[in-house]
Amino acid sequence: MAQTVKPGEFVVVGERPLDVSVPLGARPRVGTVFLRTPGVVTRTPMHATQRLAWVDALNEDRVMRGEGPLSEDEIEAEWAQSVDLLFHDGNILIRPDPTAMAMAFQADELLQQQLQVSKRLIRFLNVTDERVRGALRARGEYWRMSVVPLQPEAILAHIGAARVAIDGLPIYYYNQTNGTRLVTWQEFEGLKNQPDHVLRKMLVEIKAFCGRRNRQGTAEVDFFLSPPAFGRRNLEQVDFVILDNPALRQKHAELAAAFRAAVPVALRVDDPADIEWRNAMFAALISRPHETSAKEVVQGLSPEFFLQIEWLPGAWIEEGELLLDPVFADAEENVADAELQAMCDLRAREFIFNYVREFGDVEYVNIGRINRTLSLRREEARRNTVYIAEVKQLGIPVPVVRIIRLQKWGIGEHLNDGVDLLTAILRAEEYTDYILDRRMGCRQLGMNLPPHVNTRRISERYTGQNSRYLGQAYWITYLERDYVSGRASDKLPDAAYQNPAFVVRLARLLGEAAAVNLIVGRMRSDRTTVLFDDGDEVILFDAEGLPASLVVSDHTGTFTNYEDDFSLNIEAYAAPVNRRADKLAAHAGAFAQCYLDAFVSRFVHIQQVYRGRKRAFDSLFKHRPWDPGGSMAYRWLHVLERLDAAEAWQIAELIRQHITVSDQPG
Fold first, then answer.
1. pTM of the model
2. Cross-strand partners of 363
3. Is residue 274 exposed (0-12), middle (13-18) or buried (19+ Cβ within 10 Å)?
């Protein structure tokens, strides 16, 4: 029996969303918020049937009050002013209509106010649509985008949680974004093991729902990996209701055989442990494309970079007033909530204040946190958190995107070592100078770095190991630069390597960059690993999509190896060729030759520039402290002496000896 809806009340028809008192298996998976007559329906497993259930509830109440049922126009109005919800992993996901974002935000407010759902538990789907993410962006709410799982265990959990039923067996995998339920060949074929009446019911259900479209415009049910060879048309001419049992089973066997033939052999078994099947299913479950996985969400931000971002509560300006996201206030009131404290990063709030003070005419600020490196290596820095900021100014159409990296050795780190506050401050300032001096040295020797870097500070309270200063306010220094819009050299699409023009240009850029990288001794601090072609080298493209330039986004590790011979770990400079051998195929030899030629040419050019302006180079850091323990002035002169004494062709020959492609250059 439908639950009645009393005027003026917000009524839940079904179980309350996120009700922990309801057993996990009995909790609803989908819901619909209605705005015209406020309420939410969680009864029945489909949004379409929930809309029918809502009309039933309204009509039952009208009958009890002696009124007639809703008219067709009134029913359409109720349905039109509704918003789809999904309940997943303790969160409510709003699936907005991009043309009606005001309704999505109204539903958001109702959930918070009427059901007392915390704002941090309500997220938004469909954010690859510019209208959706633009609406979130303007509110400083990138953090409310539903994100794609990144780790294998999270992907497995996502696939497992996607299993749903309609009115029968839970044989479907549900795509949260487009509302389609996928049935695999294994699940379809496995229906042969069910009793006749269950087999009939499921075939009728599959046929009915694969012929229907949801409000997202996609099929309610579709077939995993088989369209267009097998799909709705294979079932639409069959009347499963009138077939006798033997004929029913025969027809099912024929359909299963056709379905099987349409699916790649390696993907016919539903095996989440198999990486190929798992990736294919996951891609299907996040398709359309889903969330942040397939397109830029911040203009100019590459997909592999965006995926690493944990967006944090931001801020916007309204009538000249800075409005921080209300969840910051929630965090202040709930200091014991570790998850909420982590979300409301106080450093992010300080970054926002700096931007508002700097620009003065800010519309909104979105801050993201990147907790793991994009490179093939793992960062060795103590303070390895990187932030990204998107700042929109009034009157400027495109937001500014900046990368924020906290200084590795700051006041807090030195206090942890037991020194006094003044010493910690002086050492931190010296390290800031060292970072900027290394950057200057890299540019002097031809490394193509982002053009602008600023140093700024935020304050926080000390909570480290030095008990003398617990609670002491101190400053954290961070370096801020413009985001380099391009693709990391180690994450280029495989298909690009089939274009000879692309191969030649890429080889030349990598060879030139390798020469500079070797000269400045860019390695890990233990000098066991060369840092090159592992995420920091960003390729920029011309109008034809060909590599035009290479920018080193981060000069971490430069001037680490300033004393050893160039032959130390020289095999690392053959790796850019060897790693690409399979992708390059017939172009591998040409790539290797072009790479080495560019290496030699660039190395010799830098030597000539140095020899022609030796005095200017030698005196660049003369005013800095001289310390054989490793000051920048000391390292700089050793790097220049080594450069002057080297023979580029001999180094290239050492690299060539480590190149393993079959048609390597002679």
1. 0.72
2. none
3. middle
